[in-house]
């Protein structure tokens, strides 16, 4: 997949199916749009292009995580376009003429039914359809993917993330919430005095669930491991950065420097400040027990995952 960060000019393409939006999280609604451009690629040989508008706010997916996901899905080109004043204030018809038609030479544009863009948010699926006749591209408008009577959106997922409702999020995304990074050295106390753990430090731009303990699956280069993860600042020892620290069940490998993706399945408890290491250690032992029980109970889910060495 080609990744282009727009810093001024847009690149020139031709014969492409473009989908437009913020695409944070890549939820079930987004997947419908992406599947549509992939179908067009198969059927008409169009380049599958995702144009993602990005702002400075914290996001469910880092830029790199989104890149990895879209590449895996089979997207040809990801255009990351900053949602700056120039783009926000560009008149919708100018955006269509200069960028969609002039630069990308889109033959197909795919958006959700409530997609809005351009100055005063006057750009709409109807406007795209109207200009499509003039500029010779097809517009495909996708009905909103719903969860009950609520539209699935990144906003909805952000709300659930604040509550630590990981099961609901997995349902809305179509796969678990995750954070990806490289395993770093902790203070080494885990190995000496507690339990061995794998630490990753998510960037500040990444939205995380509440500080606390979660049932997780870590996907490593060596294999996939169930485990239990603490998200937070370890108040008992006092850390000055937010860490994601996982005790992998049945894994005694040296993992430092490995790439890792931690999938979050269930929230267990909030992070706490303990009065002694012994009390913390006893609690972590109970957490590990809860985690193992959860995997026992979720046999159906476990069947779809293959644990252990690859
Ligand atoms: C499952 C689990 C739960 C944890 N819960 C807490 C907690 O509630 N409070 C806390 O201060 N630290 C918690 N920790 C972090 C420990 O303080 C940490 O593992 C220990 O200080 C070792 O850190 P190090 O690897 O950086 O040396 C937890 C760690 C794990 C793996
Ligand atoms: N539930 C959905 N079903 C179908 N299409 C969707 C759905 N949600 C968003 N889309 C479409 O996907 C594209 C990207 O959506 P975008 O990420 O901008 O919106 P969102 O998920 O509703 O996020 P937010 O809540 O931040 O506004 C847009 O074309 C949008 O209309």
TrEMBL record:
Which terms are listed as keywords in the entry?
A: ATP-binding, FAD, Flavoprotein, FMN, Kinase, Multifunctional enzyme, Nucleotide-binding, Nucleotidyltransferase, Transferase
Recorded catalytic reaction(s): these are:
riboflavin + ATP = FMN + ADP + H(+); FMN + ATP + H(+) = FAD + diphosphate
Gene Ontology BP, a term: riboflavin biosynthetic process
Q: Which Gene3D superfamilies match?
A: HUPs (3.40.50.620), Riboflavin kinase-like (2.40.30.30)
Any one Gene Ontology MF annotation carried by this entry is: FMN adenylyltransferase activity
Pathway assigned to this chain's UniProt record: Cofactor biosynthesis; FMN biosynthesis; FMN from riboflavin (ATP route): step 1/1; Cofactor biosynthesis; FAD biosynthesis; FAD from FMN: step 1/1
Database matches in Pfam families: FAD_syn, Flavokinase
Riboflavin kinase domain spans which residues?
Answer: 172-296
Q: What is this protein called?
A: Riboflavin biosynthesis protein
SMART domains assigned to the protein according to its UniProt record, in alphabetical order: Flavokinase
Q: What is its EC number?
A: 2.7.1.26, 2.7.7.2
Family to which the UniProt record says this protein belongs: Belongs to the ribF family.
């Amino acid at each position: 997949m080609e990744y282009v960060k727009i810093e001024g000019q847009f690149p020139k393409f031709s014969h492409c199916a473009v989908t437009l939006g913020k695409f944070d999280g890549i939820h079930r609604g987004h997947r419908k749009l992406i599947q549509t451009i992939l179908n067009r690629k198969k059927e008409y040989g169009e380049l599958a292009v995702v144009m993602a508008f990005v702002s400075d706010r914290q996001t469910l997916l880092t830029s790199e995580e989104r890149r990895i996901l879209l590449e895996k899905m089979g997207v040809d080109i990801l255009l990351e376009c900053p949602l700056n004043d120039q783009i926000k204030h560009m008149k919708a018809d100018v955006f269509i003429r200069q960028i969609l038609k002039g630069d990308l030479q889109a033959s197909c544009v795919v958006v959700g039914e409530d997609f809005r863009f351009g100055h005063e948010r006057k750009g709409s699926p109807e406007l795209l359809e109207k200009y499509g006749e003039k500029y010779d591209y097809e517009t495909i408008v996708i009905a909103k993917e719903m969860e009950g009577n609520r539209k699935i959106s990144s906003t909805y997922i952000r709300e659930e993330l604040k509550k630590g409702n990981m099961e609901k999020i997995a349902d809305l995304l179509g796969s678990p919430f995750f954070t990806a990074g490289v395993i770093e050295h902790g203070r080494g106390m885990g190995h000496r005095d507690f339990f061995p753990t794998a630490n990753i430090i998510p960037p500040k731009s990444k939205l995380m669930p509440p500080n606390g303990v979660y049932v997780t699956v870590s996907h490593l280069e060596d294999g996939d491991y169930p485990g239990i993860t603490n998200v937070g600042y370890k108040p008992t020892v006092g850390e000055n950065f937010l860490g994601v620290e996982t005790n992998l069940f049945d894994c005694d490998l040296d993992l430092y420097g490995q790439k890792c993706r931690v999938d979050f399945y269930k929230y267990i408890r909030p992070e706490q400040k303990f009065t002694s290491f012994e009390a913390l250690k006893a609690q972590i032992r109970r957490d590990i027990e809860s985690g193992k029980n959860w995997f026992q109970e979720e046999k159906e889910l476990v069947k779809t995952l293959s644990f252990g060495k690859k």
